[in-house]
Amino acid sequence: MPKPKPVEPGKVIDPRHNAPGQIDHPKTGPDGRSLGQKPLQDGHGREIAPGRDHAGDFHNAEGNIRDHDRGWDNRDHGYQWNRFGDRDMMHHWDGHYHWWGFYLADVYFWTIYYNDYYWWYDPYWHRYCYQRDGRWWWQNPDQAGEVYVYQDGSYYQYNDTEGGVVMNPDPTPPVDVPPGDPTPADPNAKSFYSADGARSVQVSGDSQDAYLYDTSDTPAFEPKYMASGVTDVRFQLDGSQQLSKILLLQGDSSFSLFDKNGDPAAAQTASLAVAPQAAVKADAVSASTVGQGLEKSAAFTALKLGSVAW
User: Fold this and answer.
1) 66 and 140, same structural domain?
2) What is the pTM of this model?
3) CA distance 274 to 118
4) Are 196 and 137 members of one domain?
5) Are residues 177 and 196 located together in one domain of the fold?
6) What is the reported pLDDT for 22?
7) Which of 295, 169, 309 has the alpha carbon at shortest distance from 234?
């Protein structure tokens, strides 16, 4: 899972202050014939950001786009077709930003190329997202360093956790409700990823059920149920920085330990609500979202004194 790299101050496109102009979508292609491509949408008719299938299109065009924009006459606010390799693309300079329309086999989408990033406008949340490391990110212009990842039509705030990262859903409602899927985002949903990218633990539902996923292109197993009442997930990496163990913290003051394949490991399940032990200093354990009894737990102390350090 790539980590967000915030855009430097003053380089974020904020539609409230430096809003790009509107695009007049062309009706005809470079050959003068009517265009048959449709906007990039999901099955519900909702406009979506270009995905992994378009990574090659972005990469192959970037050098040509950069050279084209540097040599552009900024007095020219017109539209111009360009042929890059086997792709026809349209350029527009709105006086502030360079727009590029990608017209592919049967779909099209527009992006801004600015500050060496592609930017995509979300017409529902009215946000400009930038592309980095194969994903789309939105940086809150009002909160420095607050970055969200755009995934499957929703936004998730990205934070570090022990041995990985966690993504929490953004509760902000859209400005314009998107068409199609009426199912609201699950407020209990959290996505945890190990730092090596090998596994993901998805927590969802009122019972906070946790399922383990193999994130490889050819998963070694189907999603596997781990536990309920899960409030936090930690990952242990070995000396090669590969995932070794997975620790689930639960709201009933217990924890569960698994290997990387979701099988119970040593000290599988134990209660955290036991008498405190003096063997481990409180500051040796990272803070979590569950009760304060964790650092004082004899069971957790025993776990720490073994081969696992959290």
Assistant:
1) yes
2) 0.77
3) 53
4) no
5) no
6) 78
7) 309
Last residue of a domain, one of 181, 202, 229: 181
Q: What is the pLDDT of residue 181?
A: 65
Region class of 85: left (phi > 0), else alpha (psi between -120 and 50), else beta: left
Report if residue 76 sits inside a domain: yes
Mean pLDDT of 198-206: 95
* CB-CB contact of 270 with 299 (8 Å): yes
Domain shared by 29 and 98, yes or no: yes
Task: Determine the residue type at 216.
Answer: S
What is the span of the domain harbouring residue 230? Answer: 186-305
Q: Enumerate the β-bridge partners of residue 166.
A: 159, 192
Q: Say if residue 26 is in the same domain as residue 60.
A: yes
Per-residue pLDDT at 196 exceeds 80: yes
- How many structural domains comprise the chain? 2
